[in-house]
Amino acid sequence: MKPKHANLTATFHVLCFCLCLDKVKREIREAKYASGKMSGEEEDEEHNLDDLSERTLMSKSSDRYQVSGWDNDDDGIEQENQPHDSPAKEILWACEHGEMTVVQKLLERDITLLEVTDNDGYTPLHRACYNGHSELVKFLLLNGAKHDKETVDKWQPLHSASRWNQLDCAALLISHGADINAKSKGGITALHLAAGHVEAKNLLEMLLTNLELKTDLKDESGDTSYDIARRCGPNEKLFEAVEPCFL
Question: Could you confirm whether the keyword Repeat appears in this record (predicted)?
Answer without folding.
Answer: yes
